[in-house]
Amino acid sequence: xxxxxxxxxxxxxxxxxxxxxxxxxxxxxxxxxxxxxxxxxxxxxxxxxxxxxxxxxxxxxxxxxxxxxxxxxxxxxxxxxxxxxxxxxxxxxxxxxxxxxxxxxxxxxxxxxxxxxxxxxxxxxxxxxxxxxxxxxxxxxxxxxxxxxxxxxxxxxxxxxxxxxxxxxxxxxxxxxxxxxxxxxxxxxxxxxxxxxxxxxxxxxxxxxxxxxxxxxxxxxxxxxxxxxxxxxxxxxxxxxxxxxxxxxxxxxxxxxxxxxxxxxxxxxxxxxxxxxxxxxxxxxxxxxxxx
Amino acid sequence: xxxxxxxxxxxxxxxxxxxxxxxxxxxxxxxxxxxxxxxxxxxxxxxxxxxxxxxxxxxxxxxxxxxxxxxxxxxxxxxxxxxxxxxxxxxxxxxxxxxxxxxxxxxxxxxxxxxxxxxxxxxxxxxxxxxxxxxxxxxxxxxxxxxxxxxxxxxxxxxxxxxxxxxxxxxxxxxxxxxxxxxxxxxxxxxxxxxxxxxxxxxxxxxxxxxxxxxxxxxxxxxxxxxxxxxxxxxxxxxxxxxxxxxxxxxxxxxxxxxxxxxxxxxxxxxxxxxxxxxxxxxxxxxxxxxxxxxxxxxxxxxxxxxxxxxxxxxx
Lengths: 292, 316
Description:
The complex is a heterodimer.
Chain A: H1 2-9, H2 17-23, H3 26-48, H4 81-117, H5 119-134, H6 137-147, H7 152-161, H8 165-178, H9 182-189, H10 194-202, H11 207-230, H12 242-246, H13 258-284
Helix pairs in contact in A: 2-13, 3-4, 3-13, 4-5, 4-7, 4-8, 4-11, 4-13, 5-8, 8-11, 9-10, 11-13
Chain B: H1 2-29, H2 36-39, H3 46-55, H4 62-75, H5 88-123, H6 128-142, H7 145-159, H8 176-210, H9 213-220, H10 225-262, H11 268-277, H12 281-309, H13 311-315
Subcellular location (chain A): Cell membrane
Organism (chain A): Sinorhizobium americanum
Membrane topology (chain A): Multi-pass membrane protein
């Protein structure tokens, strides 16, 4: 029944005003294209290149980019930089995306609960959010990942555990403002359970801000993974990530600057793209808020 | 004012309590917990460890351990470094000045440039400058600080040879100019992200103020646009920025850690990484708690300063 009603009223999503606004946002389109190209390159690239990311060729150490058979040059062990860049991209993008999913999940749960229930539970939850925000995130991430066994999975969990607070704040504010609206009161009078009202009635109406925050969280998670891996406490070699490719690149800065420049450029492109997309979604979904 | 102060102080106390609980949880997540240092020592037997556990009171319930730990924190007894046996607070104190110098100079840069970009963006809304500033800010927020630092070192130290690639001063040359020379690149690198954030907020704040009635009144009085901007707009727009400066502190500290690592700057961030490398957990925990307490206190100070300046907040 509800499906029929929804269907008859809903326009095709690609014809909706939201989609139009998003498509007319140039930066967001650029971001989408860049992410699509980057993802495709990371997924397909390793199959197209003649070299394996782990293949060591000591005769071809420190080959500069755009010369010979190694398109982006080689590292101190003679491994092909392009192959490593693509394999690293898979890890970095996957960690960033998974961390976003997990932290959005935590943040949404905390935010909905705090916003709807309010009272001492809401206060406690939101003060905990403030408490987590008081720690410089990298100190927490480093302390946790040094203490726990570093695996891609663990890094993802640690990054998510230290980046869910923004989503929680946004969702809490949104839910608190929706809580007293008529449709929620109607739900309460119909005798719907609290869980049903929170997650089936209120949450769908708060999706816009959540989607925007989630997109920006991907950008932050990729950056955070890069930071901890660069500092040596993130993804561990031989598994490459964009961050750990830069770990140790500083000592070769004078002789082989491409070792530092190329992976860093990949991080910047990926993060910029997600920030552009987030900005476009904010405009398209008409989410108010500061422009940072 | 008194009501506001009491309210704000009690909020900060609650926050410190929560911060300490989070810190205690992190401490206990470290394998071996507070005994981690002894687990690495091969001459320690399980009996020794058990006896130590007994002595240090680690077999008591967690909440008692927490109270004990928190009480020692309050008293200033933060434990001793595993590396040289010095009290943790002394070790932190030795590295504090270098970090404050770096953070201070980069904050000055960020405020100066960010304020200018923000105001110009707001007064020339939708101009080419405004558009470039918007896009530029988003890109600046996406550049990893360590990579920006490495590129800076490559260009300005290795290629052009204008600026030193690291350290706080040249050994044997302790002149102020030498310090300044070493300070330039790290503080610009650390400032980049905050120029972006500051300029975006400043733009929004300026736009808010420009649309207010008193600006219309000033215009009706026939004041020049420049005078309106300088006298009425900028001051009011800068007010919320004080709060922002406090809120940005955790991210400045995060940036400082990375910048100090790239530029071998002897501050708290490097100390944190070095201590992590040596599994010197008392110092790691000390820095974690110190930075969070610093953040809570600075936010408190920022709010009080705003309340002193702005009667609307003080009296409401």
